[in-house]
Amino acid sequence: MVLAVSRNAYGSERRLFSKTLTDVEEGIYIEPWSISSDELGIGEKWCINKRRLHGGLSDGVEIITVNNGELSFVVVPTRGMGIWKGEYKGTFLGWKSPVKELVNPQYVNLEARGGLGWLDGFNEWIVRCGLGNFGGPGFDVIKDNTGKEKTVMLTLHGKIANIPASVVRVKIGLDPPFELGVEGVVYERAMFGPNLRLTTSVTTTPSSNSLRISDTVENLSGVTDEMQILYHCNYSDPFLEEGTRLIAPIRRVAPCNLTAAEGIGGFDIFGPPQSEFVEQVYFMELLADSKGLTKAMLVGKDETKAVSVSFSIKELPCFTLWKNTAALDDGYVTGLEPGTSFPNPKPFERQWNRVVKLRSGEKYHSEVVLSAHLGKEEVQKVYSEIEKIRGKTEPVVHKEPVRDFSQV
Fold first, then answer.
1. What does the alpha-carbon distance between residue 218 and residue 196 come to, in Å, rounded to a whole number?
2. CATH assignment, 3-397
3. Which of 16, 138, 207, 241 has its CA 20 to 30 A from that of 222?
C-alpha cells in the first residue's frame, strides 16, 4: 500500500491510497492489477481493476474498470482517458456504435475519408474532443518552423481521444466519503507545434449514481497557444427511445444548418430509430445558477429513467445537442456536449472569440458530472433543479441557423 497525504484548498489534510500503474518517464508499467473494499477495509462492495485487451483492433488497449457498488464504468488510458461504457444498477450507460470493439489508436488514421478517420474508433460513452481543435474537418493557417504561413488540415474532433496516457494512477480516499479515482496525464505535442498537457481525474464514491471528470489543460510551450475542449457524452437505449425529451434551462437555441432547421419544432423530442436518418445538431446557450452551474437531462417517455450532465458555463459556455436517431445497426444515439465552443471549424469559432488562448504556463480547468437517475422520484428531483435554474425565462428558439452560432 502506498499512502499519501494531500491538502485541499482550505488546508485540510486527507489521507490517500495511491498506486502508479503507468509512468512512461519513470519506466513504470503494472498489469494486471486490482484492489477492492475488502483489501483496504473501507466502504462497501467497490473494486477497481486494470487489464490489457488482446486480439483484433483492441490488441494492446488498456482498460480500468471502476465499480462503486452501484455504478461501474470503464476508463480507457490508451484512448486519451475516455470512458468506454458504464452501468448503473444493471442499466446500461453508453451507446451501441457500429464500431463494436475498443480500437487501438494505431489503427485509426485521422486523415482518412477527408479528415473523418476519427469515426473509425468512435464508440465511447464519454469522449473528449480537442485539444488543438474539435468540430468538423477543415483547414486552418499556421506558421511553420520557418515562420511562413501554411495551410493545414484539421481533422474531425482533434487528436486527444487517440493519444495514450503517459501517466496513470489510482487514488482512493481513506477517509469518508472514500473517493475512488483514476488519474491520467495525456500530452498533445509536437516539435514546432502545440505542447499541451491534459491532467485528468475520473472520480466517484461508493454507491453513488455519479462520476466526475475534472480536467486541467496546461500550455507547456514558451509561447501563447490555442485550446479547445468538448465532452461528447453519448446515450442510446434504454435512455434514448421514442418520446425521450431533452430538459435543459435554455436561454437560446438554433439549428446548426438547414437540415437541422427542418426539425427545430421538435428539437428537444426524440423519435424512434429511422433508416437513413440524417443527423441534426442544435447549438445552445444555457442559463445557470448564481455560481454559474447548469444541468441538462435526457428523460424517457414514462419519466422513470434519466441521465444528466452538470457543468459550469464559466468553463464550458457552449452546449451542443447531437441527434442521430438512425437505425439501430447504424448507431441510434444522441450526444449531450458541453464545450468551450461549438463544433464548427476552428477558424469560424476563432472569429467569434470562442477559442481559448493560453499563455505560456497558463492552465484551463473544466469539469463535468455525469449522473443516472432511476425512478420517478429521482427524475423529478432533477427536473425541479433544472426548473429552478430556468425560472420564468422562455427560451429564444431560432428557426434557422444564426450567424454567430453557425457558418451560414
1. 6
2. 2.70.98.10
3. 138
